[in-house]
């Protein structure tokens, strides 16, 4: 239980990629961390692309980055919505400034792009947003998982096992 006592934010919005939300959430919980699902509206049940629900236990506005050790951004179509919320971008920027783990998979890179934290970072994503990532100043690699300091990125669901491990490894090193 190397992550006991650590809290992590997992962002949710409509049409998140079901596995890309739940696999990392359960993986982090397996190691003892507490995960708080956060959406625009507290108490709302958001539905994933394949119908799996996720109840937002907190609203974005309730969260303070200083209370958390890391943040998970799922893929799917949710990132296109998540990047429109100023509070989400603020949380991601504050996590970045504090060098706390930021996990992003598939289309989640859109949130990091909108937070303007990718200049010079080495990352991966779904190949569909490679140009977006590179245009934001990132160095893009076609690899299952890329770890650049506190930014942990992965391409798609088949990459979830090494992504989950890499995020947990980073979280184990993280200081609140």
Work out the number of β strands.
Answer: 11
- Mean pLDDT score: 97
Secondary structural class: alpha/beta
H/E series: EHEEEEEHHEHEHEEEH
Q: Radius of gyration over alpha carbons?
A: 14 Å
Strands in their spatial order, largest beta sheet: 5-2-1-6-7-11-10
Shape: globular
- The percentage helix is 25-40%
Number of helices: 6
Terminal Cα span: 17 Å
- Uncertain stretches of 5 or more adjacent residues: none
Account of the protein in words:
Helix content is 32%, strand content 22%. With 176 residues, the protein is α/β, with parallel strands linked by helices. α1 crosses α6. The relative contact order is 0.18.
In a nutshell, what does this entry contain?
This protein has 176 residues and is an alpha/beta fold.
What characteristics describe this protein?
176 residues, alpha/beta, two-stranded antiparallel ribbon, 6 helices, 22% strand, globular
Helix/strand layout:
Layout: E1 7-11, H1 18-30, E2 34-39, E3 45-47, E4 53-55, E5 58-59, E6 70-73, H2 78-82, H3 86-97, E7 102-105, H4 109-114, E8 122-123, H5 130-135, E9 139-140, E10 145-148, E11 151-154, H6 160-173
Parallel strand pairs: 1-2, 1-6, 2-5, 6-7, 7-11, 8-9
Antiparallel strand pairs: 3-4, 10-11
């Amino acid at each position: 239980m190397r992550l006991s006592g650590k809290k992590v934010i997992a962002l949710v919005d409509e049409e998140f990629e079901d596995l890309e939300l739940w696999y990392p959430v359960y993986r982090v919980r397996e190691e003892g961390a507490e995960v708080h699902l956060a959406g625009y509206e507290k108490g709302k049940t958001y539905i994933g692309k394949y119908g799996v629900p996720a109840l937002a236990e907190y609203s974005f506005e309730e969260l303070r980055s200083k209370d958390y050790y890391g943040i998970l951004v799922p893929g799917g179509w949710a990132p296109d919505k998540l990047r429109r919320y100023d509070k989400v971008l603020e949380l991601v920027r504050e996590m970045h400034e504090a060098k706390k783990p930021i996990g992003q998979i598939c289309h989640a890179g859109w949130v990091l792009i909108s937070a303007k934290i990718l200049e010079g970072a080495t990352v991966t994503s779904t190949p569909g947003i490679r140009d977006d990532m590179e245009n934001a100043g990132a160095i893009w690699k076609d690899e299952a998982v890329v770890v650049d300091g506190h930014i942990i990125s992965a391409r798609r669901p088949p990459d979830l096992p090494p992504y989950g491990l890499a995020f947990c490894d980073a979280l184990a090193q993280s200081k609140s």
